[in-house]
Amino acid sequence: MIDVTVGVKPVFGPLIHSGAWEGPCRTGNLTDLTPEAEKTAAQQRFSQLKQELEENLTAEATMLEPVMIEYGEDLVISPKDLEKLETDLRETDLYVVSGTSIPQYFAVTIGERYKKPVATVSAGVANVDVAAYLRSRGLEGFAPLDFDELNQLISLLRVRKTFQRTRMLLIADEELIPQGVVSSIWNLEDLKTRFSIGSKRISFTRLSEQFERVTESETEQQKAQQIVDKLVSNAQELRIDREYVINDVNFYLAVNNLMEKYQCNAVTVPCFELCSAQLPAKWKAVPCLTHTLLKDAGYPSSCEGDISVLLAMVLLMSVSQKSSFMGNPSLDKDLLTVTHSVPGLKMNGFDSPDLPYHLASFTAAGWGTKVQIDLADNEEKQVTLARFNPLATRILVATGTIVDCTFNEIACSPRAYIQVPDARGLIHKQVDFGHHLAMVYGDYTAQLEKLGELLDIEVEVV
Q: What band does 2 get if pLDDT is binned at 50, 70 and 90?
């Protein structure tokens, strides 16, 4: 999900008049108003526009081949000319439209024909005119004032595109609603209809078969040893036997292989059901390390079969370009605490160095690898927390500052202590959302509020 970009199609529409004259919409030297002079000026402006876009577009965009389409004062744009936009129609996510004289008609024609977002970049008038027309007809029009605002729009569209391309691997033997998180999103058909989010459900039997295949494959075991070597050598402290770490890496490889097989880019594992099936006891492995490794590779991965927190994680990881944490929220005096064993090593950014960590065991018997990170010992202290409601119509968003972090010898850990404006009020708000919260470093409230508009989701900020 890290590599998603927005396909930007620049379109330039110069109005070429049939003759030279002045009037209420045209003034100037008549020699500059001839069709020939206007065509020459249009070519120069088109070349300049391409250069400006190449120099200013964010890396989150893929610039498609710019197209120039001329039209006359009758404002008739032929279907044949518009076909120039169809060579890369599937790759186009945003039309950036500009032109000469009155570009509004040209821009709205493209928006109405292709039903894709249209942005016109200017200091005002034309861009807001286009946006208002398209929005009044249920289409997407945007009015960035400059390239900075255009790039902000592209960033948001990239997150939306990532969200809409989510395909979840759901590991579940029985009911979709998990035992430990009954507030999880449950209507998969609605997710598909509203957001194009897909899913693939597989049984514990299928997971077991893949786990056994990994453990019996020489190639997979070589891969597992390489991952373990890196994890162990980079850990500040090892408080679990190396052979147990291998078991957890085998679990990760099994899940990763299934994600590849079913073309999924997000996953959730139902911890309580898995535990009841006694598969972790058999394998001497827990899902915790799997969640950490997948998120660090850019694949959202949630505990306990919780889709509500998984989709919040998709948004947070995509908007921040960072790995995430998730856990059980609770109240400790006036502080919010969030506890689980799934911090990411890449929580400062996918391109940033790993956070310092040690490896410990989840169980009293000494098996089950969990990554332990002091979440308070980081230059960035501010965090954003989020969770969808069970209907996926609202998302709860909160910001706070991590002030402390503690650890448990066994079971879920670390526990982050977060100063929020009203911890008690935040937990009360969760009666409409459910319990797990996803968390990333940084404040992304403004971006999430704008994403709410793009996705038609109510954003409740507390």
A: confident
Instruction: Calculate the CA 303 to chain-centre distance.
Output: 18
Q: What is the CA radius of gyration of the chain?
A: 26
Q: Which fold has domain 166-461?
A: L-fucose Isomerase; Chain A, domain 3 (3.20.14)
- Strand boundaries in 61-104, DSSP class E: 61-63, 67-68, 94-99
Could you please state the CATH topology (level 3) that the domain comprising 6-161 is classified under.
Answer: Rossmann fold (3.40.50)
Q: What is the spatial distance between Cα 287 and Cα 303, in angstroms, rounded to a whole number?
A: 8
Distances (CA, A) of 38 to 7, 81, 333: 30, 19, 71
Q: How far is CA 161 from CA 381, 398, 454, 455, in A?
A: 29, 23, 10, 10
- pLDDT(76) > 90: no
CB atoms within 10 A of CB 194: 15
**CA quadruple 446, 451, 454, 460: dihedral positive or negative?**
negative
Please state whether 298 falls in left (phi above 0), alpha (psi between -120 and 50) or beta: left
Residue 175 C-alpha from the chain's centroid? 27
Distance from C-alpha of 433 to C-alpha of 427, rounded to nearest angstrom: 10
3-state secondary structure of 387: strand
- DSSP-derived secondary structure for 219-265: HHHHHHHHHHHHHHHH-S-EES-HHHHHHHHHHHHHHHHHHHHTT-S
Tokens of 231: 């994890």
Residue pair 314/163 in contact (Cβ under 8 Å)? The answer is yes
Per the model's pLDDT, the better-predicted residue between 173 and 257 turns out to be 257
Predicted local distance difference test score (pLDDT) of residue 307: 98
Which pair of tokens denotes residue 123? Answer: 């200091």
Each residue of 24-52: pLDDT tens digit?
988 999 999 999 999 999 999 999 999 99
Mean pLDDT of 314-335: 98
User: Which residue, 116, 424, 412, 112, is CA-closest to 275?
Assistant: 412
Give me the helices (H) in 4-142, please: 35-56, 79-82, 104-114, 126-136
pLDDT at 62 over 90: yes
Total-model pTM: 0.95
In this prediction, residues 75-79 reach a mean pLDDT of 87
Where are the chain's structural domains?
6-161, 166-461
Q: Please give the mean pLDDT across all residues of the chain.
A: 96
